[in-house]
Amino acid sequence: MLIKTFGGAVYGVNAAMITIEVNIIQGASFYMVGLPDNAVKESQFRIESTFKSNDYRMPGRRVIVNMAPADLKKEGSAYDLPLAIGILAASEQIACPDLDKYLIMGELSLDGSVKPIKGVLPIAIEARKQGFKGFILPVHNAREAAVVNNLDVIGVEHINQAVDFLAGKQVIEPTIVDTRNEFFTNINDYEEDFFDVKGQENVKRALEIAAAGGHNLLMIGPPGSGKTMLAKRIPTILPPLSLNEALETTKIHSVAGKITRDASLLTCRPFRSPHHTISDVALVGGGSFPQPGEISLAHNGVLFLDELPEFKRSVLEVMRQPLEDRCITISRSKFSIEYPASFMLVASMNPCPCGFYNHPEKDCVCSAGVVQKYLNRISGPLLDRIDIHIEVIPVPFDKLSELRPSESSEDVRYRVIKARKLQIERYNDHEGIHCNAQLTPALMREHCQISAEGSQLLKNAMEKLGLSARAYDRILKVSRTIADLEESKNIEPNHLAEAINYRSLDRENWAG
Fold first, then answer.
1. Is 257 helix (H, G, I), strand (E, B) or coil?
2. For the chain, what are the domain ranges?
3. How confident is the model at residue 444, as a pLDDT?
4. How many CA atoms lie within 13 A of 14 on its CB side?
5. 19 Cβ contact partners less than 8 Å away, ≥ 6 residues apart
6. Rounded distance between C-alpha atoms, residue 166 and residue 85, angstroms
7. Among 59, 285, 469, 480, which is most exposed with the fewest C-beta within 10 angstroms?
8. Is 233 in a helix, a strand, or coil?
């Protein structure tokens, strides 16, 4: 008897429907075709154990399983449940009249328990798109899939629950998540706050400008000056995620298996901080079975690289193209996958190996040329993509001990949101341009015009401070953001002067 069940396969951050055809004919063997990988082929043994533990039987005849479309590779153990139900229905051990109305996914334990899987959200979106009534899946993943409306999400803990539900013997209430209520309730749920940071007013100002314009930022300062503490609070001053951004971010984390049981929709901007021993594949994504890397997990959020010069040169260089294109394409011999990677890069570093170059109180013990050599670990093309360089000075004791409250993240975020709204309206007709950091040369000529006084100021700065040519565009972009924060239509000389101060590493004499 020929029976069809339906599952899904994740490719990139999207899913494709998989039709699982099970036919039982004369003979005594088990065949599975349709490009299954080893994990899918091993499902035969998990299914056999599940049947024996739950008073079902493996058919004593030839079982042929075809997974269509046959030219797409099927990976992982998530096909155990639809395969098992297909075999039971094809061997007439169960009757499931509504089998074609449900998409089914889940990994089986040897006793028949249903274990959680990855990539549930894109599969649920595809199920709704294909017109399925419902989605039967592990109860652990139910809230994640329930973000998708107009789809009955049936969470099961055991194969018997799935069988009884499909046979009409058991009623399982669909899992329901009020997506909008959940989103707006938790949208500002951050543990950190700028209120905790004492002093560092100039650095806070630089972070506000970076957040307002979507600029990449590098903090240079000695150990213990607060670089990491400040970086962790950047998501709290970024504009809240929109519902579409939250869904897009959740899809990436779903594919990577990062969604916890109680979570459904990611409502806060992600903050990713990989260790400097990370490999290039782990950073940008890839592998034999491609998975999103840290730059994609930071999509719509912040990627923080602490101790930037300690990262391997090859790791840093692979970020150059994603920083420009805001996506990463992973190509293999038979397919190509694209992951989104629109993130704000925030990096920190010590000014030298000992950490005390330019320190106001402690002396640097590094020998001549070592500071420049340390800085040269970061390539010019990568520095070219970082708009703001800010020096972080240790906070003196009187600042640490003062009782005067610092400005909260909510106050800073209010100004950032106002500046971002101006930019969104300004670039509304330009697809893919949402903030000043994304400006093209043509748009810069249109929106970053400066007066004769400002032009002379910039010329003097370039000559006297020894600023490199690559600093010119960055200064204009940052000054445009400073003007937006002040709700100024034009870029004034004082905006340019402040932006010039944020190009520390471009000065020829910075490292001595």
1. coil
2. 2-177
3. 87
4. 8
5. 4, 5, 6, 67, 68, 69
6. 9
7. 469
8. coil
Six token digits for residue 68: 């269509």
489 pLDDT exceeds 60? yes
Residue 74, classed as helix, strand or coil, is strand
- 171: helix, strand or coil: coil
**What does the alpha-carbon distance between residue 174 and residue 28 come to, in Å, rounded to a whole number?**
39
Q: Are strands 62-68 and 14-25 parallel, antiparallel or unpaired?
A: antiparallel
E strand or H helix at 298, and its extent? Answer: none
At residue 267, what are phi and psi to the nearest 5 degrees?
-110, -10
What is the spatial distance between Cα 315 and Cα 297, in angstroms, rounded to a whole number?
16
Give the CA distances from residue 512 to residues 305, 508, 509, in Å, rounded to whole numbers and listed in that order.
Answer: 25, 8, 5
R_g (Cα) of the chain, nearest Å: 28
Cis peptide before 360 (omega within 30 of 0): no
**Cβ atoms within 10 Å, residue 77:** 17
Distance CA 318, CA 322 (A): 8
Q: Name the CATH topology of 2-177.
A: Ribosomal Protein S5; domain 2 (3.30.230)
Which string of DSSP letters, residue by residue, matches 299-330? TTSEEEESSGGGS-HHHHHTTHHHHHHSEEEE
Looking at this protein, which amino acid is placed at residue 277?
Answer: T
Q: Report the relative pairing of strands 344-349 and 302-305 from DSSP bridges.
A: parallel
Mean pLDDT of 239-246: 89
> Which structure tokens are listed for 390?
């800010």
Q: What is the pLDDT of residues 291-306, one digit of tens each?
A: 899 999 999 999 999 9
Q: Where are the alpha helices (DSSP H) in 392-440?
A: 397-401, 409-426
Residue 482 sits at the vertex; the CA angle it makes with 479 and 486, to the nearest 5 degrees, is 140
Q: Give the whole-angstrom CA distance, residue 458 versus residue 467.
A: 10
Beta carbons of 392 and 219 less than 8 angstroms apart: yes
Are 22 and 90 contacting, i.e. CB atoms less than 8 angstroms apart? yes
Write phi, then psi, for 20 (nearest 5 degrees). Answer: -105, 110
Which amino acid does the sequence have at 321?
A: Q
